[in-house]
Automatic annotation (TrEMBL):
Major localization listed first in the record, in broad terms: endoplasmic reticulum
Job of this protein: Critical mediator, in cooperation with CASP4, of endoplasmic reticulum-stress induced apoptosis. Required or the activation of CASP4 following endoplasmic reticulum stress.
UniProt keyword annotations, A-Z: Apoptosis, Endoplasmic reticulum, Glycoprotein, Membrane, Transmembrane, Transmembrane helix
Record membrane topology: Multi-pass membrane protein
Oligomeric form and interacting partners: Constitutively interacts with CASP4; required for the localization of procaspase 4 to the ER.
Biased composition (Basic and acidic residues): 80-95
InterPro entries to which the protein is assigned, alphabetical: TMEM214
Family affiliation: Belongs to the TMEM214 family.
Domain of life: Eukaryota
A cellular-component GO term for this protein: Golgi apparatus
UniProt name for this protein: Transmembrane protein 214-A
Biased composition (Acidic residues): 16-28
UniProt subcellular location: Endoplasmic reticulum membrane
Length: 594
């Protein structure tokens, strides 16, 4: 019986092991199938593996006793118990399999949501932990330009300037750099957000821009600095001004990136404090404005100072110089900014407005007119040269269809600029050259057919004739090539002769010129076949004839006036001599006085 029990247990264990292996394989296949079903919506395909049929190992019959020896009842009991046990095992497996499938279905529907929730919760937990562990840095206090400027001590600055003057006695360039470094340390705590100079310049008027940031400097600091700057050499100050301008102009390039077509961005190190550069440059230009004129050729020829993006800086620099000397400010405006208005590339409205604001500020300064008229000629160079006067005249008197918003502003500044352009010593060599240059473009503008321009240009042309007799010769040479313009001038002389005759010191050059015109008219009428040309020549000859007649009458009247004046003078002299010899009593008797 013991042997039979052992055999039964061995068979049962073998059967259980095989059933467990089959169960594991079925569960694995079921999981794979279920996974494929759940993930089918996500793009996965169902993967299944075929069940492997293992070969059952047949143990040697010697291991078991002969069943016939056990008896028939024992044999039946043994197999019956095996079948019952196998059937119970089968029921349990089916129940477990059904329960497993239901669990997989329920969990498969929420697998994605569960994963998302878990991931979100993990992120939230991580963020919360990160927030808890993050340490806040203390914010630096914001320092304004006014606050930093208020901390500068005048006595400390004076001692510093005295020290560097002695230490670098023969090296003024180093002195000026140390001077800039002093203010750089003073304004080092001012951040770019507290001094957005480029944005401020673009949004501010010239009247407001000119005081940035120098308005925050105290009078004591300003005086100590400018007095010290006044003792520096002209050459050293020129180099210092260029260095300061380069530092300012290079600053916005850091934020603008590479230019179009370039592959690399050229990074430049920012200066220690842009506030300091503006402060020292403003004080230098206000104390020594002439330095800017000496630098004008270099500034005008170097491309890095050109362009509309540099215009606010250029206007600010010239405005600082004009604070020290109005003549220097207007000279720089005429020679550097006015050509931008007349350039072929044109000028946008914002740039035009900024340029006109500056000249309006210069001309509206106290006593600007006498100061500028007194400086109309500076070291042999005219403040407003003839070429600039021509542009101003054309901008002020355009054709009716060409008028723009800025025309009225040109009309406001033109009279004083014209007066400065025409100011000079009458009869001087320089003034004669100026009048001859003006006469040529004035005659050309007179004949262009624009009424307002023609009248203004003819006025200037006649003024040239009164200032320089040589201009009559130039007119004679230009007469036939500018016949229509000459007709306009002749007609004005005829119509307004009473007014113009007073301004002519002598009429003889005009009389000679008119005689030459009549001869040229006669020859041209004989040779020319163009009817319009002949009509113009006849019109010009008519005005010449009328004008010569008036000159003759004027000349005759002048002779009579001179004769009468001489006669009266002689008579007065004769009477004065005889009055001395006459007796007063005899005169009284002759006139029947008692």
């Amino acid at each position: 019986m013991d042997e039979n029990s052992a055999a039964i247990e061995a068979i049962l264990r073998g059967g259980e092991e095989e059933e467990e292996e089959e169960e594991e394989e079925e569960e694995e296949s079921s999981k794979i199938n279920n996974k494929g079903t759940v993930d089918n919506d996500g793009g996965w395909k169902t993967v299944s593996y075929q069940k492997r049929h293992r070969k059952k190992s047949v143990k040697a019959p010697e291991a078991f006793s002969d069943p016939q020896k056990l008896g028939s009842s024992a044999t039946g009991d043994v197999f019956r118990s095996i079948e019952q046990h196998s059937e119970e095992r089968r029921h349990r497996l089916e129940a477990q399999r059904a329960a497993g499938e239901n669990a997989v279905k329920l969990s498969g529907d929420d697998v994605e949501d569960g994963a998302d929730v878990e991931a979100a919760s993990s992120v939230d937990n991580g963020g919360a932990e990160a927030k808890k562990t993050k340490v806040k840095r203390p914010k630096k206090p914001k320092v304004t330009v006014a606050e930093a400027s208020a901390k500068i001590d005048a006595s400390d600055l004076a001692a510093f300037l005295a020290d560097i003057t002695v230490s670098y006695e023969s090296q003024q360039d180093i002195q000026l750099m140390r001077f800039a470094d002093y203010f750089g340390r003073a304004f080092a705590s001012v951040s770019a957000s507290q001094f957005p100079w480029m944005k401020t310049f673009k949004e501010s008027s010239v009247a407001k821009m000119v005081d940035i940031p120098i308005s925050h400097i105290s009078e004591a600091i300003y005086k100590a600095s400018t007095d010290w700057l006044n003792q520096r050499s002209f050459e050293a100050l020129g180099s210092f001004v260029l260095w300061s301008m380069d530092s300012i102009i290079s600053d916005p390039a850091i934020h603008q990136g590479a230019a179009k077509g370039s592959k690399k961005v050229v990074q430049q190190a920012p200066s220690k404090s842009q506030v300091a550069i503006f402060v020292v440059l403003a004080m230098t230009l206000r104390r020594k404005p002439d330095v800017l004129i000496s630098l004008m050729p270099a500034i005008r020829e170097d491309a890095k100072y050109q362009g509309h993006d540099k215009l606010p800086v250029t206007v600010w620099v010239i405005a600082q110089a004009s604070q020290g000397d109005l003549v220097v400010g207007l000279f720089m405006w005429i020679n550097f900014l006015l050509p931008m208005l007349s350039s072929k590339s044109g000028c946008n409205p914002q740039a035009r407005d900024l340029i006109l604001q500056l000249v309006e500020r210069i001309l509206s300064a106290p006593k600007a007119r006498p100061i500028l008229l007194n400086g109309a000629v500076r070291k042999g160079e005219r403040l407003v040269p003839p070429s600039s006067l021509e542009f101003l005249m054309r901008a002020t008197f355009p054709a009716s269809y060409a008028r723009v918003k800025s025309t009225e502003r040109f009309e406001a500044v033109y009279p004083i600029l014209k007066e400065i352009a025409l100011t000079g010593s009458p009869g001087s060599k320089a003034m004669k050259q100026t009048t001859q240059q003006i006469l040529q473009f004035a005659l050309k503008a007179t004949g262009e057919g624009v009424p307002n321009l023609s009248r203004e240009a003819s006025n200037i042309f006649i003024w040239c004739l009164t200032q320089n007799p040589d201009c009559y010769k130039d007119w004679d040479n230009l007469y036939l090539d500018n016949l229509e313009a000459s007709i306009v001038v002749l007609k004005r002389l005829v119509d307004e002769w009473k007014e113009h005759s007073v301004k002519h010191p002598t009429v003889q050059p005009l009389k000679v010129t008119l005689a030459s015109f009549r001869k040229k008219n006669e020859k041209a009428l004989a040779a020319d076949e163009d009817d319009d040309r002949k009509a113009s020549l006849k019109d010009a000859d008519k005005h010449c004839k009328v004008l010569m007649g008036r000159l003759s009458r004027t000349h005759g009247c002048m002779k009579i006036v001179v004769f009468v004046s001489v006669a009266l003078a002689v008579g007065a002299a004769y009477m004065s001599q005889n009055m001395q010899s006459w007796d007063l009593k005899e005169l009284l008797v002759d006139f029947n006085f008692p």
